Amino acid sequence: MLDMGHARATMVQRQLAGRGIASAKVLEAMGLVPREAFVPERLQEFAYEDSPLPIDEGQTISQPYIVALMIEAAQLRAGDRVLEVGAGSGYAAAVISRIAGRVFAIERHERLADAARKRLARLGFDNVELLAGDGTHGWPEAAPFDAILVAAGGPAVPQPLKEQLEIGGRLVIPVGDKQGQQRLVKVVRTSATHFEEEDLGGVTFVPLIGAHGWNAGQPRPAEERSFRPTSERSIPQLIGEAAEPLPPLDDPAFGEMFDRFAQARVVLLGEASHGTSEFYRARSAITRRLIERHGFQIVAAEADWPDAASLDRYVRDRPAPRHAEPPFRRFPTWMWRNTEVEAFIEGLRNWNLQRPAEQRAGFYGLDLYNLSASILAVLDYLDRVDPEAAAVAR
């Protein structure tokens, strides 16, 4: 049986602290709240995975990292009055309640709100008050708030929420004028009429439905759409519903489309057109964006690892072995020995040369096609670090 306490502690250490969540208050609160109690029973074993999970009414419980990121950005203090819009199963409200003085949470779906209210009461989170209604109106009777967190993405920041902020109050909300393309925005009220905004990066949330959000009848993002059975539609129709138009490959806006994955620990770039120039250029643009704007430092390629190691030494400006051979001179040479990869490697080297050695991004191979070179590389390494193991390996 899964040890939930251990899983929770591991989540806090690896997914939160390990990815830059620095607030001791947030880390402590995330370690206190049992996320497994806020997900469907059939999904409890996945409660501490690094991903959102489905709950009732077609909604989701947010990824733990995103919950922590938003709460940290809100800069909560003991005694704060906090409004949460989009309470879902009540998990984020519970975490907030371990830091703030009073939490007011709103959930659009009556059934979700009722279940969350009972759950919070049963678990002893008695400083949370939960209301069913349109969260885009806020909660005027309980205002003003020191912080407001919105767990759904709207086309703009709802004006009623801004007006319900205390002077110095912080509002954290996903915003995007195109559904499915959202930026996490932090709004600080600096005076009665002035607000300052800060962009915290790309995210993907369920749509914010309400009078000051998206209309319930508007099309939802592909990720949140309630699909008809696939048997009723052709494959081209399915692709058309899921597809998003992309800018030209050379347009900086192309890379920006992938900011929504910036908070992921691993991004896997699949390929529908293996070996085409367009795919290689698209993959390069996405990878460059993740490295240059979001701090990714590992490029892992489906390539012979000894050959990739040669490129890694080049892009990180490390010395090559005395008898190093040119890389990727055996099958399949076309996969990596081409002009698109050369342009990417040169760009990565130029990026790295402007940074300290410990901040440079590396290029690593995952395959062992080149058996003889792989054997030699292993033996060379063992000769240097463990001669006895090298003898065994030989």
In summary, what is this structure?
By secondary structure, the protein is of the alpha/beta class. It has helices spanning 4-16, 24-32, 64-73, 91-97, 110-123, 159-163, 235-242, 252-256, 277-294, 305-315, 333-336, 339-353, 371-385, 387-393, and strands spanning 53-54, 60-61, 81-85, 102-107, 128-132, 145-150, 165-178, 181-189, 195-203, 298-304, 362-367. The protein contains 14 helices and 11 strands.
Structure description:
It is built from 14 helices and eleven strands. It has 394 residues and is an alpha/beta fold. The protein has a seven-stranded mixed sheet. Strand 4, helix 5 (110-123) and strand 5 form a beta-alpha-beta unit.
Would you tell me the overall average pLDDT? Answer: 90
Strand % is: 15-25%
Terminal-residue CA separation:
43 Å
The major sheet is characterized as: 7 strands, mixed
- Can you write the helix and strand succession as a string? HHEEHEHEHEEHEEEHHHEHHHEHH
Number of helices: 14
Summing up helix and strand content along with how strands pair, one would put the structural category as alpha/beta
Radius of gyration: 25 Å
Could you tell me the number of beta strands? Answer: 11
| Shape designation | elongated
Helical amount among residues, as a percent range? 25-40%
